[in-house]
Amino acid sequence: MANHHQKPHAIMIPYPYQGHITPFVYLAIKLASHGFTITFVNTHYIHSKISNSQSRENSQIKNKDDLFARARESGLDIRYATVNDGFPLGFDRSLNHDQFVEGLLHVFSAHFDELVGDLVKSDPPVTCLIADTFYVWPAMIADKYSLVYVSFWTEPALVFNLYYHMELLKKNGHFASQDNRKDTIDYIPGVKAIEPRDLMSYLQATDIWTVVHRVIYKAFTDIKKADIIICNTVQELEFDTLSALNKNQPTYAIGPIFPSGNFTKAPFSISLWSESDCSQWLNNKPNSSVLYLSFGSYAHTSKEDLLEIAHGLQFSGVNFIWVLRPDIVSSDETDFLPVGFEESIKDRGLIVPWCRQIEVISHPAIGGFLTHCGWNSTLESIWCGIPLICFPLLTDQFTNRKLVVNDWKIGINLCDKERVTHEEVAEKVSHFMCGNSTQELRKAVKEVRKTLENALGQDGSSEKNFHQFMENIKVNARKRAGLSNGHVSPLHQNGNGLVH
Ligand SMILES: O=c1ccn([C@@H]2O[C@H](COP(=O)(O)OP(=O)(O)O[C@H]3O[C@H](CO)[C@@H](O)[C@H](O)[C@H]3O)[C@@H](O)[C@H]2O)c(=O)[nH]1
């Protein structure tokens, strides 16, 4: 029978994309370092991608049998399990995106349910489920197995808040109407004002019944049943939004969630693609002279835009590292660069399919980051004191751009018009890398970095919130198990997941 001195045990399940897996992994390590037992679940597919990406790498950073082998050797109780996502390993999830997401929406929960049914028999008993907010079924699973339901949001709180109030946006005609209003939105609790063009792409869309929309509607219905919400953000950066959210449900800003200890030298890799080593190349470049470009792991760009950016880089004359995933346009369109491009830039440009981003942007040679504004990239760039050139493509990236450019003033827009042109890219990039105005951005980014650093300090907001969050899990676990104030109610002594 479980007793209330037992360690808390959480099952963690990220959405099966890089930008979600990364913060989940570092949160797992942090919770385990604070005495939690963690069972981390990846899909078979993600597990195989990570393992394959490492088989070609330096054996020093190879994870032996699973992602957390090293962490276990250092004494942390992190277990690892994999689950079927409903598709065979060879299925191209990037090319068949909508079909894959339909599977996540309708089929995945049955596989996960079966796995949780097995995991709850483990020792110490599982008390808590930490699931990505984009899943549509955590409330059902948490209820079935009597687990505390923690929803982990890997984007800014502002984005969460806007989805949370989709109905309000709809009622006011800013979303889901034939002809959405174009004026400023000033009625969302905790958001003073936001322009419709800064909403997430899904809230700007005219087709509002895509599979991703259906995921969002269901996920933001499910979230209302969460016991606890945690966000990879910082209280001081999004104070009003978080205060408003907290009036509805306990919401903790616990970010930025980074590898602990040495930021750049994580002891293992969680990349889905194998990482090219850029350090030699960077070592030969002057300080702050290299622009780093990456559009993250998920979004695609059109071939036309890529050609404009490529020509713009050619004309700009700046040094650059450009991460171009093989499926950046589409998995069946892998030959997208202009003829002779690589030859023409070979002394000052390096193109790689993937790299260890935090290591690259920490290098003193990096002076700017042209980014799609994925939230992890934004936080990492701030941490490294690197100003941003923003080129949002999809989802939260438009809203993140607003935070970066309009609110925090740590970056600029790549294009001011509808479409990106090579003239504008050349002009913006060379001015950004060589002009004096970047000094202001650098100063501002250092200020924001200080806010992040303070939040992670011993008395910082994220650290305090993290401890309150852990406490809250324990309180909720006791409630679920029918305990109050740590005393076992005779009615509920069933050995089911009691923690202290
Ligand atoms: O060559 C590369 C490129 C990226 N990264 C890492 O991959 C992650 C990418 O995350 P992010 O910048 O958030 O972009 P996406 O992969 O596109 O992330 C998805 O998930 C994010 C968090 O939910 C959202 O903000 C994004 O819009 C969504 O596309 C970061 O940790 C990077 O350090 C590498 O290690 N090597």
Structural features:
EC 2.4.1.-, binds uridine-5'-diphosphate-glucose, Glycosyltransferase, 20 helices, 500 residues, UDP_glycos_trans_CS, alpha/beta, single chain, glycosyltransferase, six-stranded parallel sheet
Explain what this protein looks like in three dimensions.
This protein is an alpha/beta fold. It contains 20 helices and 15 strands. The strands form three sheets. A seven-stranded parallel beta sheet has the order 3-2-1-4-5-6-7, sandwiched between helices. The longest helix is centred in the C-terminal third of the chain and has 20 residues, at 461-480. The chain starts with 8 loop residues before the first strand and ends in a 12-residue tail after the last strand. Mean pLDDT is 92; it is low at 484-500. Bound molecules: uridine-5'-diphosphate-glucose (UPG). Uridine-5'-diphosphate-glucose binds at residues 17-20, 22, 154-155, 271, 294, 296-299, 323, 354-358, 374-377, 380, 395-397. This is Glycosyltransferase. GO terms for molecular function: hexosyltransferase activity. Belongs to the UDP-glycosyltransferase family. It comes from Solanum stoloniferum.
